[in-house]
Amino acid sequence: METQSSIPFLLRISSIHVGILRSDFLYDHSMRITFMGYINGRMRGNVRIIFLCVVSVNFGVGRAAMVMFRREFGIVVMMDILEVACLILVTGAAGYIGSHTCVSLLEAGFDIVAIDNFANSKPEALSRVQEITGKTFSIHSVDMLDAKALDAVFAEENMEAVIHFAGLKAVGESVAQPLRYYENNLVSTINLCKSMKKHHVNKIVFSSSATVYGAQEQVPLREDMPIAPVNPYGQTKAMIEQILRDIAVADDQFGAALLRYFNPVGAHGSGRIGEDPQGIPNNLVPYVAQVAVGKRAELTVHGGDYDTPDGTGIRDYIHVMDLAEGHVKALSWVLNHTGAEAFNLGTGKGSSVLEVVHAFEQASGVRIPYHIGPRRPGDAARSFADPSKAQQVLGWRATKTLDDMCADTWKWQKQNPNGYGE
Ligand code: NAD
Ligand code: UFG
Questions:
Q1: Does 63 have pLDDT greater than 70?
Q2: Which residues form the NAD(P)-binding domain (predicted)?
């Protein structure tokens, strides 16, 4: 079920209040005036807009009031314009995509609460997010398999929505350790959904993956194609998508954006945060970056006999900061909608392994030695997105090029040859 809303109309109203919010009174720091606009009902036809004035002495009270009124009256609008920021729980926040998304969320005016068990990440990533943005946030070192510890975070913080990155993600490892993958990814999500329900948090953005499409012959991949994952990792993503769809059917207040990422690469333009794989990288771009910096001797290209122009596999590489912006858009969408919807986050453009190698050589000025090896089991010849649904519904599209992705990866790798270190 969808609730109709008209953001431009509401923004016009909010801009009147921005003037009031910026009055001298606001800058008397002992008090804060917050105006909140709510729409209750449908925009076309029976429109009812209720303005509430909350006078509070600190942020915490303002936020609690906002959450309470939202539950009472319907959809909160004008989040980014309000002086009281909307608080978002980010699970797996210290990871590669989570840390970059935290930067985008903070820069978009959201407040965040970070959860991670640091199984595949370092706390340093979150320190650097704070350094880049100049903003602080609370960090909870919690394993989401521990339902009690997770629920305590919900009891302590007044979250409006969740972005759920936490999970194990290595395809090969999931084949070797299926139980560990099913337990970690599914149980942590079920614990999360139970706490969300208990604490009346009913909006979620979920990290799914293009891997749910399995080995499709047909490209570009569209969200309405049947999904058929071919490994335990992909199965966990498909199952979680289904769990969230089922919750949305049972609960008409629930909203979920299921984001199917293609191949995230690159780093923040500052070179302060980036991908920090443990051990030998599984993925192409981190491997190439480690060859360029001298940590690995040469790249093995997995197959040179595919039915593609240069014989190597084609993928849809997407800059991690474009992906991060996609989360901000998806969050704005989910805060105003109910139901569960899948969205491809990709560029719509495929690049071959050798094109990536050459673009990286160009960006780094370093030659990348490689040899062509056998195909990697389970690899498709080509995989790229039809990203038009995300553009039409979320108003998002990727803007960065393969050259940008290589330049930013190189900056990160050169400045941090050992990642975040010990
Ligand atoms: P990542 O491993 O860098 O980040 C995941 C984070 O989750 C890590 O910091 C890890 O410590 C944390 N985590 C794992 N299990 C946890 C648990 N039980 N409790 C608390 N924290 C836990 O991975 P990423 O590349 O940032 O990916 C983020 C999400 O996006 C994952 O769900 C992944 O499956 C998905 N995804 C990633 C890619 C990719 O190529 N990177 C592609 C498609 C989808
Ligand atoms: N490749 C090599 N040599 C390497 C690594 C990769 O030639 O050392 C090739 C692969 O064969 C493939 C391409 O580079 O043709 C990209 O491979 P990646 O491992 O970087 O990415 P995949 O498309 O195989 O998989 C990634 C994530 C999955 C996710 C999938 C879809 O690893 O988790 O994208 O989002 F499911």
A1: no
A2: 89-409
